[in-house]
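QA checklist item 7 of 12: single-chain prediction sanity check.
[x] sequence parsed
[x] length recorded as 103
[x] structure emitted
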Amino acid sequence: MPILTFLDWFLALVGGAMVVYEVFYLIMGLFIKPIVFPPAPQDKRYAILISARNESEVIGQLINSIRKNDYPQDLVDIWLVADNCTDDTAQIATSLGAHVIER
């Protein structure tokens, strides 16, 4: 019985410490201003590599989603590796402006 009493007190202490920790950071979050970072320069080139196999149903949505990004599109290259596709994944990606490598 003393072991169970000890475990009860120990678990209550640990649980209480976790609640105090959460409440402390909740209150601190109300008073501390978030850090504002300066906007990053948009002069870096990026290549987005997509590996796909029979993804014709979703590859168009993915490429369009990447294109909707507000980063300058002339600095973003989309590469698709069509891995033994038996559907028209490669053709869809090519029609949307992606560079396609078929294996």
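[x] summary fact logged: Helices lie at 2-31, 59-67, 89-95.
[ ] second reviewer sign-off
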